[in-house]
Specification:
Strand content: 5-15%
Low-confidence stretches: none
Number of helices: 11
Shape: globular
Order of helices and strands: HHHHHHEEEEEEEHEEHHHH
CATH class of the largest domain: Mainly Alpha
Radius of gyration: 21 Å
Structural class: alpha+beta
Largest sheet: 4 strands, antiparallel
Helix content: 40-55%
Mean pLDDT: 94
CATH topology of the largest domain: Butyryl-CoA Dehydrogenase, subunit A, domain 3
Number of domains: 3
CATH architecture of the largest domain: Up-down Bundle
Strand order of the largest sheet: 2-3-7-6
């Protein structure tokens, strides 16, 4: 990245930071408690061009590097983590098309995905196939120039509002293929239904749904990568999930930053025994540990993003960053709630929201236990 590129990146991140402070922070808790989709914030994110953040400029994207993207996700999550969730599954799908789609697919989908007029969901998990991605049962059977899809998908973020779904299904050769499902004119048409919305502890304001496919037809033209892409869907998805794990790690850093800042403010305002609680060693030491974990999580996230930008395979680094940052965010949010005492348990302070949001990062894009399996496997390969 040149000096000019760095200045432009800093300017964009600074603009988003200012917007988050001005528009998101004052309104996030009200929207979150109402579980209301942030339509005005979504529109502003489209104006910023964030839905095409890392997509090449030739297709209408911003062409940003992953490091700048991670910084943007961090700022959004500092205001309200759900905003980053609106982006993530969309960006996974867009990345898959940009990398593995045919020229026709790139030209047909990416410009509309970049301007936000077409939003995408990513659909891999099923009722009996979460982390065990090779156990998916959703089936796609060829029929002339179409594929007929049957099955149920779970945990589809943005599944109601998205106009497109990046769907992984098992084909008759027992391999997994990725299909670009166009929902227009809407769910329920031609065998696609949103069977239920899943209520959640946190991560509110955007929907997470179950989707059912019954004899749903997808044309050959919507097989990701065309005929050569049949059977390679899982490899396509796992490659794109490297960027998804950077997103999750950056989200964790953003929420942890917000929780830490809230705890610092409160510790200097709240007095007990005639002095601010910050002056009590028990609180001061806790804040010191929180700041150290936050700094380490940020550095690991940026390191994974820089390696991604350099073209390295980052299964190990992205897994480490996601593991450490998500666990650190949960610990920091928990400590922030404790520092707030009884006030932290009320809806009057935002730390209860941070506390409810952080478990999502421990689970999403592969649980911490799955990350440890990935890390251990990569370590053995590197040191064998």
């Amino acid at each position: 990245m040149t000096a000019t590129d760095t200045e432009l990146a800093d300017e964009l991140v600074g603009a988003i930071r200012s917007w988050v402070d001005r528009e998101v922070v004052p309104n996030a808790s009200d929207l979150e408690h109402a579980d209301e989709f942030p339509q005005a914030m979504f529109a502003q994110m489209c104006e910023f061009g964030l839905f095409g953040a890392t997509i090449p400029e030739a297709y209408g994207g911003l062409g940003l590097d992953a490091t700048t993207y991670a910084r943007i996700i961090e700022e959004l999550s500092r205001g309200w983590m759900s905003l980053a969730g609106i982006l993530n599954t969309h960006k996974i799908a867009a990345t898959m098309i940009a990398r593995y789609g045919t020229n026709e697919q790139r030209g047909r989908f990416l410009p509309r995905m970049c301007d936000g007029s077409v939003r995408s969901a990513f659909s891999l998990s099923e009722p009996d196939a979460g982390s065990d991605t090779r156990s998916i049962r959703c089936r796609a059977v060829p029929d002339g120039e179409e594929w007929v899809i049957n099955g149920t998908k779970m945990w589809v973020t943005n599944g109601m509002r998205a106009q497109m779904v990046m769907l992984l299904a098992r084909t008759p050769d027992d391999r997994i293929t990725c299909f670009i499902v166009e929902k227009e004119p809407g769910p329920g048409a031609d065998g696609l239904t949103v069977s239920r919305t899943i209520p959640k502890l946190g991560y509110k304001g955007l929907e997470t749904v179950e989707m059912a496919y019954t004899d749903f037809r997808v044309p050959d033209a919507n097989v990701l990568g065309g005929a050569d892409g049949v059977g390679h869907g899982l490899a396509f998805a796992l490659s794109a999930l490297e960027l998804g794990r950077i997103n999750i790690a950056a989200r964790a850093v953003g929420v942890a930053q917000a929780a830490f800042e809230a705890a610092m403010r409160y510790a200097q305002e709240r007095e007990t025994f005639g002095r601010p609680i910050y002056d009590h060693q028990a609180i001061g030491f806790k804040l010191a540990e929180m700041a150290t974990k936050l700094h380490a999580a940020r550095l690991m996230t940026y390191d994974a993003a820089r390696r991604y930008d350099s073209g390295e395979r980052i299964d190990l680094e992205a897994g480490m960053a996601k593991l450490f940052a998500s666990e650190a965010a949960f610990e920091i949010a928990s400590d922030a709630l404790r520092i707030h005492g009884g006030n932290g348990y009320t809806e009057e302070y935002p730390v209860e929201r941070y506390f409810r949001d952080t478990p999502l990062m421990i689970i999403g894009e592969g649980t911490s236990e799955i990350q440890k399996m990935v890390i251990a496997r990569q370590l053995r390969d590197r040191y064998n």
